[in-house]
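Quick start: what a row looks like.
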Amino acid sequence: MDGLAAPQGGLSVSQQVRAMFYVLQPNESSFASLEEVPDYVNKATPLFVVLMLLEFVVSWVWRHQAPGRINDSITSLSAGVLSRLPDVVSRSLELTTYIYVWDNYRLFELLWDSPWTWYLTFLGVDFGYYWFHRMAHEVNILWAAHQVHHSSEAYNLSTALRQSVLQRYASWVFYLPMALFIPPSVYAVHLQFNLLYQFWIHTEVVNTLGPLELILNTPSHHRVHHGRNPYCIDKNYGGTLIIWDRIFGTFVAEDDKVIYGLTHPINTFEPFKVQLCHLAYIWSTFWATPGFSNKLSVIFKGPGWGPGKPRLGLPEEIPVITGKEVPFNPKLPIYLSVYAVVHFALMLGFYVDLFETQATLSQVTLLLRIGYIILTLTSIGFLLEQRPKAASLEVVRCSVFLALHKLSYLKIYIASLAFTYENVVANSIPEFISLWCSLDQFCGRFCLPCTILNHLKCAWVSINLIHIYSLVVRYALHKNYEFLPEMCQIREILERSRGGSQTGTSINSSLPDCSLLLYHYNFMFVVLYIYILYDLTHIPTPRLPLCPC
């Protein structure tokens, strides 16, 4: 969370793991000031990756299938990235408003290092989350933000990261009463723990947890919450504890097979449409509904409300679940799937670096990097949907990357990959231009312009393969030694330690060996790129109807 920093010594691996499951003890997670509170969420990023990989392995071995689809998982991760970008330029509203109330209106002050304060805050944060979560389902304008989290038609750990950009601007209200007596440092710890706990319960590889099901929110309980079956709607709102649902009558146990997603699926992977589609629906419904009071009801009553209906709508209007529902899953050629995953992973590198270096970057650099990340997420979303403008947008994205990289607004911090990635991006531009112009397969008939373009494309691919090969070999053997990997520096140190300079051995004599090492280091990227070019030439892609004819 923005504004938080790790204390002296940081967090041990054990503490990071236990924070994920809300089992850190009060004496190791209590802090006198807000500045001492670690950023548990940011430090959990490696654990998110490890647990998602573990979920994949377990699901593959146990169920003989992956826990989700590439397009859906990338969309979930994209939403998570978007939801965190505001933290780069502004402080968390949940903390800012809490600190303001604490500084100006607190009634009394509980001891920050008391276990009683720690446990009371644990209950208070979870109770506040229950009511925010419930209102986010029962008030249409709040649902417009929260529906992002429910829009996935899969249920896996990546779904936990599918978060709304707008939700934070409403949730803070439900925690403010605690600011009258609970120190901000204690609140900041539990706000993060409550969020982290909810990550691991988004999985199907854990069935039930025995007696713990009576008290804790578990994967089984939360699967119900994400279901669109009629018995699942508006149930199991708890964050860490399920007792609030049992007390207030919103609990239901997992029964029939759960079908995930919204009652009316949005069928898109475009990140902004995922975030804003329900707001657009509210806007159109607001103006189409007659009467001022009815217009207000569109905003503040339930998502299923309409004139003459109960506040939360009619249960019989919920679509019937047959068990044969097919998730939105447009088929994507293998090369485009590989391309999307590789470029999304590289974008994550820029995203992580943005948070690590934000204090040292100018406002212009911050905004340009945020803009590039948003452009990348949008372009990948278009590719996953195979939208008509996908190829042209990807040409723009690659061009923007080259410009920002040349002007030093973007930097690839694995130095030995910088040259390779820059060339791959540069050579992707003509490929997507030719894809934009289309092949003759798109017409399904003889078409002179497309046939000419296809032959030109084949010639271009041949030249391109020779070009990229010569670039890599020339670079690896002759140029840009300042970008050689750290292994070359180690080799130079060893040469010096052996007295190489005294015996007349030149330090540069080690460079050909290191360059060969670099050549092999980049080889897998070259092979991947050649495979992409080959597939672009030989595999028909009729799902992109881009033919200018």
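That is the whole record. The two ends are 51 Å apart (CA to CA). The mean pLDDT is 81.
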